[in-house]
Structure formats: C-alpha cells, structure tokens
Amino acid sequence: MESVNLQSSLQTDVQTQAEMTQSSGRHDRNQDIGLGRGVYVSTYGCQMNVNDTERMYSLLEMANFTPVKTPEEAELIIINACSIREKPVHKVYSEVGRYRKLREKNPGLKIGVGGCVGQQEKENLIKNQPLIDFVFGTDNIDSLPNLVSQVFTDKAKVIQTKFEHRAPYHVETLVRNPGVSTFVNIAKGCDNFCTFCIVPYTRGREKSRPMSHVLMDVRNLVNRGVKEVSLLGQNVNSYHSEDGADFADLLKKVATDTGVERIRYTTSHPKDFNEKLMHVMADHQDKICEYVHLPFQSGNTEILKRMNRGYSREEYIAKINQMKKIIPNLVLSTDIIVGFPGETEEAFQDTMSLVEEIGFETIYAFMYSPRPFTKAAQFTDQIEEKVKNERLNRLFDHQDKIAFEIVKRYQDQTLNVLVESINEQGKAQGRSTQNKLVYFMGTADLIGKTVPVRITQPFPSVLRGELQQ
Ligand code: SF4
After folding, report:
1. Ligand 1 in contact with 187 (CB < 6 A)?
2. Is the CB of 463 under 6 A from ligand 1?
3. What is the reported pLDDT for 86?
4. Sign, CA torsion 398/400/401/407
C-alpha cells in the first residue's frame, strides 16, 4: 500500500554522527546540564503538543534549565510545532527568523525545533534555516536533556527523529503545576491512515500505556490536588493495555479506583466507539462527563470512503442515536473538513444537513489542505481555495444558528461548575460537565471546587451565570 511505503521511507531516520554519540547515553536525566540557563518553548498545535511542551519543560527543569516567559530571557529556545493544518513549516521559519537579533546579541543562544514539524522535516529545517541548532521528533522528547547537552557542549548540529518502534510506551505524566485540571496521555500515534491526515507519519504507530501506569499517574495527580483529568490519545477508542483492558475498562477504573472527581477524554473515532463504552459512561456519570467529541469529517458517504474513515453517514448517525439513548443528556461536538478533494456542492450539502440532524453544540471546521506524504494530497480533483472558503463560511453561519438555539436550553438551568480560575475583578471561570465554559462572580476560595451555577445568559461559546448558595 502506498501509505505504508511512504511511512517506512519517512521513518528511515536520519542518524547523524551526532545522534549516534548522543544515543550512547552520556548524560543522566538529572545531571546539571542546564546550569540554570533560561529555556523558552514556543508551542502551537493540538492538545497533544501542549502536553508535550509541558513534558519538555519538566525534563529540562530536572536538568537545571529555568523555564522563562519570553524568548528574550532564554538561552535555549524550542519551537514545538504541529503540522496538521495551515502552513506549519513556513510558520517555523518565520518564527526562527524573528530570533536572529537575539542570536546576534547572544551568540550562545541555541534554537531547536520539535513536534510534528521536526518529525516531518528532519534535516531540511537545518539546511534551510542555519539558525536552527537541533531538530527532534515526537518520539524523542525524553532524550531532550541529552540532546540539548550535546548541542551546548559539542557545539554540533543535532538531528534526532528516530521512532522507537519496539520500545513500549512507558512514560510517567510529567506536569510541573497541574492545577485543577490536567491531561494524561494514554496512547500515542495512530494506525488509521485517514487519507488527509499526517498524524500516522509524524506520531508513528499507535501505542498504549499500560492501564496500571495510567491509574498510578491519575492517583498521583489527585494527591497533588488535581480534580479533573482528560485522558488523551489520537484515537482513545482503540486503546489497549498490555493486560487486555480496552478503553471502556480503563475509563471505568479511572472512575472507580483513583479518587479523581471528573473525567474527560479525547479524541474518539466513530468506527471504534462501542456500546460497552456508552454503558460505562452512563453508569459512571457522577465522574465521567456526558460530553463526547466525535469527529465525522464529512456528511457524505463517498467522501468518507475517500477519506478512509471506516464508516458511512448512516453508520455515524446510527451510532450517535445509540449514544443518545444510552448516555443521558449527551452533549456532542465534532470536527469537519470542508472542501476535501472531489467534494461537490451536493456532498457539501450532506455535511450541512448532518450538522443540523445531529445538533452539535460545537463544531471545529477546517478547510482541507494537502499535507505531505498523505494519499489525498495526490488526488487530482482538489477544490479551489475560494470555493472551500465560501463553504466554510456557510457552514459556520449554519452552525451559529443551530448552536444559538441549542444553548437556549441552558437558560435558568443550574450546572455543576468546576472552578479553574478567578481574576482580580472576582470573575470566576470554570467548566461544566457539558464542557461549557462558564463565567460568574465568585471568590478565590472556590478554585478547585465544584459549585452550582444558575445560567442567566447562554451563548454558543460561553455561559454566564450566578453562583447558587
Ligand atoms: S484517526 Fe485521527 S489521527 Fe488517525 S489518521 Fe485519522 S484523523 Fe489522523
């Protein structure tokens, strides 16, 4: 299959001399590599990337780097960049270009690029932008202290983008200040090869963490004051622990065996979302939020086939109807791609009608853009940018009207809101179990507590309310 061949060529990794020296493991993770130098990580992309940045900071802090708030304060700058949408490589080059003056002021400043862009572009980044000192891939984050040490001591350019295919996915969650709510990775990579998606190439083959490790992480986070965890994976529904547990088993255990107050998860795949999971959600609604993000991508079965999504429009609708029956008060959001190659106006209308039929509270819609290595990038029936743009605007207008009607149901309802922060004016911010952002006036002692808030002004993106005593 074309995609598999492409993938293997991609994963024929660059193993530079520098990388080979590095992989001999000259440095321990806790050695004083950083000497207190400031490190700044610039992040763009999905939640997985944000989580990876937190891991980078944690690892570098252990190696005595000091996280700083601006690039101007840093002696080490890392750009952790997503490559799913837009023009990610271009963005990286222009960001690095902005650091030229900082390098002139401080010739010792080191600049690295990681994340999906590092994985995808490898040595090209250094070839095209000599200000970049090192590049690392999505599977090499735990080697970052060693890699950075090499950059500082050997003053060599380093590229490390090797996928650890055989290594099990055994990592503990590293979060410096977890706060009220935090993310816990349960799986990484993806084997689905949707024809538009670069993730299988930039994140590698799907791997799951053992259930016992996830449970231990959640318990530790609860001991540090965390009230809510979001379990994270590219496709959580195909999670499989070494001991045979599936995602429904894991979710149930997190609900019953960790002491955490609230659980969310993302992202789900319609073809893998099973009835067992629906029942676990229904049976543990005291802990598991009734919110599901279930990307449908297109409402047209022919387009779904070309996307290699593994379900038809009818199957998606049937699954949602089953979920609505089993999970009380289910709230839904979705991802949609507009202007996929071959999408006719009629096919687009299928997307518009599906949005209406299901009644999503939120949609995340994007114009299709060809990604390197993916099958759909080779399709010859690409859609003109102006057509994609016009369809996307129509879709947003359509959804605005739908969401405006749907959220009216929150008027005067009292929702349980987990308070995350409060500003100086006393405006508290939290999330309801429906994943709605809720604002109300409160006091600082409410942070970390779940409180009843009566909704007085529901809007599609936020709800405003009053604290109930
Ligand atoms: S399931 Fe999601 S992550 Fe995997 S290939 Fe498809 S869109 Fe990408």
Report:
1. no
2. no
3. 59
4. positive
DSSP β-ladder status, 187-188 and 207-208: antiparallel
Of the candidates 215, 188, 219, 212, the one whose C-alpha atom is nearest the C-alpha of residue 202 is 188
Section 431-443 average pLDDT: 96
Domains, in order of start, for the chain: 2-160 (3.40.50), 181-408 (3.80.30.20), 411-467 (2.40.50.140)
Q: Rounded distance, CA 456 to CA 467, Å?
A: 10
Mean pLDDT of 362-381: 94
Alpha carbon separation from 401 to 173, 330, 337, 405, 459 (Å, rounded): 40, 20, 19, 7, 11
- Given a cut of 80, is residue 332 above it in pLDDT? yes
Please indicate whether residue 197, judged by its CB atom, sits closer than 6 Å to ligand 1: yes
Backbone φ, ψ for residue 156 (5° rounding):
-105, 155
CA–CA separation, 295 and 196 (whole Å)? 14
Among 235, 214, 177, which Cα is nearest to 48's?
235
> Does any ligand 1 atom lie closer than 6 A to the CB of residue 200?
yes
Which amino acid type is present at position 307? M
Rounded to two decimals, the pTM is 0.83
Pairing of strands 462-467, 450-458: antiparallel
- The residue whose CA has the least distance to atom 1 of ligand 1 is 192
Cα–Cα distance measured from residue 374 to residue 361, given in angstroms and rounded to the nearest whole number: 30
Structure tokens at 327: 């999970």
Mean pLDDT of 52-60: 90
Ligand 1 atom closest to 198 (CA): 8
Identify residue 424 by its one-letter amino acid code.
Answer: E
Q: State the greatest distance between any 2 C-alpha atoms of the chain, in Å, as a whole number.
A: 65
Helix 385-406 to helix 345-358 angle, to the nearest 10 degrees? Answer: 20
Phi, psi of 54 (to 5 degrees): -60, -40
Q: Contact, 161 vs 119, CB < 8 A?
A: yes
Q: Name residue, tokens 């935090």.
A: 182
Residue 111 is which amino acid? I
Task: Give the percent of the chain with pLDDT over 90.
Answer: 72
Determine the Cα–Cα distance for residues 441 and 437; give it in Å rounded to an integer. 14
Q: Is 296 in the pocket of ligand 1 (CB under 6 A)?
A: no
Contact 199 CB / ligand 1 (< 6 Å) = yes
Using alpha carbons, list the distances in angstroms from residue 149 to 63, 125, 132.
9, 20, 15
What DSSP element (H or E) covers 266?
strand 262-266
Write the DSSP assignment of 266-296 as a string of letters.
E---GGG--HHHHHHHHHTTTTB-SEEE---
Cross-strand partners of 429? 421, 439
